[in-house]
Amino acid sequence: MEYGVVIVSHVAEIAAGVKRLIEQVAKDVSVTTAGGLEDGGVGTDMARIMTAFEENKADKILAFYDLGSAKMNLEMAIEMSDKEVHLYDTALVESAYTAAALLQVNTKLEDVEKQLKELKVK
Question: A biological process (GO) annotation for this entry (predicted)?
Answer without folding.
Answer: glycerol catabolic process
